[in-house]
Amino acid sequence: MPIKTNFPLVNLKLGKTKNKGVGDRARIDKIPAKHRKAVEAQLRRISVVIQTRREEMGLTQEELAELLDLTVVALGYIEQGRRFPSLPFLFYVCRVMDIPIKIGA
After folding, report:
1. For the residues 81-97, what does the mean pLDDT come to?
2. Fewer CB in 10 Å around end: N or C, the chain?
């Protein structure tokens, strides 16, 4: 079930992306093994930050999904860490939710 947005989201259709059917697991598996666990931990933290910030804002999943032009299911998958937003969409989410982005050490 595709989401309604102009921003790409990894795994728009039950484990597939618009990018040649490559899912999150396949993308993570491309990361060298010595870095994979750290990257997976960062992705899980992103999910927690989005959910925590939504709750701090006093929004339901339905309300945030509406703001982001997502389905509630897609937002739920992101918050559960079952799907990960693309980098451009993540920047958009952070902008809408006023989540600071720090790149680098």
Report:
1. 94
2. C
Q: Is residue 75 part of a domain?
A: yes
How far is Cα 102 from Cα 28, in angstroms, rounded to an integer? 22
For residue 84, what is the domain's CATH number? 1.10.260.40
Q: Give the burial string for 49-59 (b: 16+ CB within 10 Å, else e).
A: ebbebbeeeee
Is the pLDDT confidence value at 76 over 60? yes
- Write the pLDDT tens digit of every residue in 19-67: 444 678 888 899 999 999 999 999 999 999 999 999 999 999 999 999 9
Using 50, 70 and 90 to split pLDDT, how confident is the model at 105?
Answer: low
Distance CA 61, CA 68 (A): 10
Q: What is the DSSP string of 39-64?
A: HHHHHHHHHHHHHHHHHHTT--HHHH
Residue with the two structure tokens 């006023």: 98
Total tally of structural domains belonging to the chain: 1
